[in-house]
Amino acid sequence: xxxxxxxxxxxxxxxxxxxxxxxxxxxxxxxxxxxxxxxxxxxxxxxxxxxxxxxxxxxxxxxxxxxxxxxxxxxxxxxxxxxxxxxxxxxxxxxxxxxxxxxxxxxxxxxxxxxxxxxxxxxxxxxxxxxxxxxxxxxxxxxxxxxxxxxxxxxxxxxxxxxxxxxxxxxxxxxxxxxxxxxxxxxxxxxxxxxxxxxxxxxxxxxxxxxxxxxxxxxxxxxxxxxxxxxxxxxxxxxxxxxxxxxxxxxxxxxxxxxxxxxxxxxxxxxxxxxxxxxxxxxxxxxxxxxxxxxxxxxxxxxxxxxxxxxxxxxxxxxxxxxx
Amino acid sequence: xxxxxxxxxxxxxxxxxxxxxxxxxxxxxxxxxxxxxxxxxxxxxxxxxxxxxxxxxxxxxxxxxxxxxxxxxxxxxxxxxxxxxxxxxxxxxxxxxxxxxxxxxxxxxxxxxxxxxxxxxxxxxxxxxxxxxxxxxxxxxxxxxxxxxxxxxxxxxxxxxxxxxxxxxxxxxxxxxxxxxxxxxxxxxxxxxxxxxxxxxxxxxxxxxxxxxxxxxxxx
Lengths: 324, 220
Fold this sequence. Notes:
The structure holds two protein chains of two kinds.
Chain A: E1 5-8, H1 12-20, E2 24-27, H2 33-39, E3 48-51, E4 61-64, E5 67-71, H3 76-81, H4 83-88, H5 90-98, H6 102-105, H7 110-115, E6 156-159, E7 165-168, H8 177-182, E8 186-189, E9 193-195, H9 196-199, E10 200-203, E11 206-208, E12 216-222, E13 229-235, E14 246-252, E15 258-263, E16 270-271, H10 273-279, H11 286-296, H12 308-323
Helix pairs in contact in A: 10-11, 11-12
Chain B: H1 2-6, H2 11-22, E1 31-32, E2 39-40, H3 43-53, E3 61-67, E4 70-76, H4 82-89, E5 108-111, E6 114-117, E7 130-132, H5 134-138, H6 144-152, H7 162-175, H8 181-187, H9 198-214
Parallel strand pairs in B: 3-7
Antiparallel strand pairs in B: 1-2, 3-4, 5-6, 5-7
Helix pairs in contact in B: 6-9
């Protein structure tokens, strides 16, 4: 890595002020950022890296005002072992337990997992080799290149640095995003509270709607009603140290309402609303599970190399439904 | 003990580890500016010098850590990873750098009781923390049965990944002194071995557990 200044932030105010300066980047666990700096993928190298881990009081898990509140600095390993999380939102603990590898889970935060940059191989190519749309460049190389891990629901469209519309095919592979989306969590930042459905957004060098200097402080999950069933499923090519190719979370509310959220298939985590409507209020049968799997990929536009993901989604949805 | 039965001794390596820990510099007395070579008596003077003379360069960071039970006070560059500080500033070469991206587990150390990938941790983030490396495990007689079992079962070929596996195993045994084979596989699932020694690791750890928990009765 090339040199940068380092600040151990003592408070949210200090970190926020430092992050408003151009050329500064926030780091929590560093699992995402340090790799990016080592690969030197950014056009402008950061002048300052702000360590958020030294801010006190952001790593708690508590139940308050009808919400299960998870601090943004909760390590995923601690979340997966936390008894409150295991009993109230078992799918969150399950997802946290399947992320990356044991040593990485101990040092990877919930906030960092949600705010990570895309893992597209053009975006991450050593030495900023591809000046892609997501880095403020002209185009997305995945359209004509190898897009086997890219979006099956079309590209994200956003305004580039030059003001023109740009498209990007990279997917959001955050391990905990689908389960938090299915549980309709809220993201609390230093400035506002954002429903998780509006939190993810694609733009130049960002994967969330966070403004410069805005820091995620807490994730609030509305306490699931009694009798709510939930599960988490993922598919990856290796069992450990691998990002999910497809991951999904299912939540069945006691009234017969469903929430199904998919990750790894679209530029942002995505609710499978057609499947939710199909399942609503019906008794689960193997045929209905199969139909729900098909409905989950309704409207998909796979590229030439990634139609296999649709089969993965269909099968994972079916298996997850039948396991509840 | 097992190591004798296998005809292998790791005692020399353990003595080396002990010498490495003894040779760790506890505190840098004279501070040298890496850019112009000017010498200072304290870190405060160096920081002031940086602000005055090299305002565009990244300022060094003062780091206080406990490494293998010894307090260390170092002056490092902010972009140095924990792995680099252990190797270049402290001379502890046990943690190995392989992928440098947190994907292989060879650089695993124990940071405040948790297994941590030292290549993926900024040293500047570790101020005030306690680090335990494979050298610290090698010199602690409590963990001798684990090392002996690794020798006996030959749970290595080229040996480059072995320190990472050993540290991950130690971190597991700290948390769970009587793990099952499934627990071991889960705990070691972040370590990659290109030689394919995986089955030997669970064998070795299970045997070390028997020895450590039952006092070696079955292996006497």
